Amino acid sequence: MKKIVIKVNINCQICKTEVLKAVTKLTGIDKVSVDGEKGMLTIVGDVDPVLVVRNLKKIGKVPEIISVGPPKPPEYCEEFKFRECRPCPPSCRECQLIFTSYPYNDGRTCSIL
């Protein structure tokens, strides 16, 4: 899994659509985003950057690879933070079955068996 950032000239909505069509034909892509104002194409997935550049050149674009690296890890969502840590309740000696419940900030709980 890698994040590829490519600079490509995107003048209008038609150009943006052509770029997206050319790139999404490739396999192994998980996420594609285009910033028309900055002229940046960002691709996340298991795809060869050379193949991306080749497809963009086929439609008459002049791509420039800015970076290739690992994607950012997803940000931790504050909504799912637990209010408190509690010890697990005792379990049955035969099957080691444990039941616990974690409360969320909005009043909901998550029960794990």
Which secondary structure elements does this structure contain, and how are they paired or packed?
Blueprint (H helix, E strand, L loop, with lengths): L1 E6 L5 H12 L4 E7 L4 E6 L3 H10 L5 E6 L30 E4 L5 E4 L1
Antiparallel strand pairs: 1-3, 1-4, 2-3, 5-6
Describe the protein in words.
The protein has two helices and six strands, in the order E-H-E-E-H-E-E-E. The longest helix is centred in the first third of the chain and has 12 residues. The radius of gyration is 23 Å and the shape is elongated. The mean pLDDT is 80. It is an alpha+beta fold and 113 residues long. A four-stranded antiparallel β-sheet has the order 2-3-1-4, with helices on one face.
Which features would summarize this protein structure in a list?
113 residues; alpha+beta; 4-stranded antiparallel sheet; two-stranded antiparallel sheet; 29% strand; elongated
Kindly summarize this structure in a few lines.
The protein is of the alpha+beta class. The protein is built from 2 helices and 6 strands.
> What fraction of the residues are assigned to beta strands by DSSP?
25-35%
Q: In order across it, which strands form the biggest sheet?
A: 2-3-1-4
Order of helices and strands: EHEEHEEE
- Helical amount: 10-25%
- What structural category do the secondary elements indicate? alpha+beta
Mean pLDDT: 80
Radius of gyration: 23 Å
Instruction: Please state the overall shape, judged from the principal axes of the Cα atoms.
Output: elongated
Low-confidence stretches: none
How can the largest sheet be summarized? Answer: 4 strands, antiparallel
**Total number of strands:** 6
Distance between the termini: 33 Å
Count up the helices: 2
